[in-house]
Amino acid sequence: MFSIDNSQYLRSGFTLGKGSKLFQDIERDIIKIVFWDKRVTQSQLVAATKIPQQTVSRLLKGLTQSHVLRQTDEMIPNPKGKPGFGIELNPNYAYTFGVSILLDAIGVAVMDFAGNVIATKFSEMDDMSIAHALEATEALVKALSEECKLDDTRVLGMGVGISGFFSSMDGKMNTHHMLEEWSQVDIVDIISNHFKLPTWVVNDGTGAAAGEGVAGVGRQYKNFVYLFVSSAFGGGVVTNTEVLRGTYGNAGELGDMLPSKIYAHPNLELLKRILKKNGVKFSSIYNLHEEFDPDWPGVEEWIFKVQDSFDLVATCCSALLDAEAIILGGHIPKELAEMVIPRIDVYAQFRRGAKRPMPKIVVSGVQKHPVSIGAATIPLRELCL
């Protein structure tokens, strides 16, 4: 996950703390708890952070005066003492943009400071060259800014999700062959210079996993593996609510678990080919959520072909990571995911008549635009969480 120096492009609407940080570490500790719990009391913050009560009170006063936090009228019960007023993030304090650079489409999402998705826009494209993609992204960003009446001085930054893997520690990516012009270039530099915003870039599956942890069912789990089913197959890993990056930023490359000559990769291009052979056509994988029919001839064939692949990946993730959940997402239709999940067999040895605790396997809660929504969470995670 690579970014520019945040201090270069932070807008005048924000006051920096020490160095180039938006918040001091002690303030981030409080913001992080409020973000994940959504609403807390001062006494709960004291208990969770182990920071002295007077210090917490002083920090809350400052964060409230700067409109980062706000106090609600609701009183929250306290089992160990007096009830307290609720404290929550001010969603209007700041906004982020998330951009998905897919194989044949651009998506943009806007997220508020509390992690709520405000709006999304999406455009399928024939030309994914850098110049054309930047032009399309700029148009979508402008349209969203106008429709949502965003104050551009309150934009924290931009996250970008793109199909590929990082080839070294310099942030350059070996992208899918359909994104040839984006390969081995400084994507962060290109995007940040164009939009004059702090920018981060992640693999599309990693981005989707990050978004699932904030805006989907992944928020219910501190540790989960996200299976990204799209034109290709990949994924991401979230551990203790943090996105696992790995040495180069390539953690979660689940497709590499599956030698292609042995296992069929469970992607939607394979589904498209099988359906076409059976006389079924659909407009694009991005519209499958609306168009999918579980009775289409060829659906069961696809499930049969990819079942062993899902079994292997789920078993490896369960054994290696001991995750709470495995989440099936990406652009796979919810109905198709619900057909696949009951058939996934996660192997584990029996010992004294019992298996080790197994992860739940569930459908993603982010049904549309998972990459751009996920990318929008990256500035929040980097600057505030």
TrEMBL record:
Protein name stated in the entry: N-acetylglucosamine repressor
CDD domains with a match to the protein in the record: ASKHA_ATPase_ROK
GO terms for biological process, alphabetical: N-acetylneuraminate catabolic process
The organism of origin for this protein: Paraglaciecola mesophila
Coiled-coil positions: none
Top-rank taxon, per record: Bacteria
Biological classification of the source: Bacteria, Pseudomonadati, Pseudomonadota, Gammaproteobacteria, Alteromonadales
Molecular function per GO: N-acylmannosamine kinase activity
Pfam families xrefs: ROK
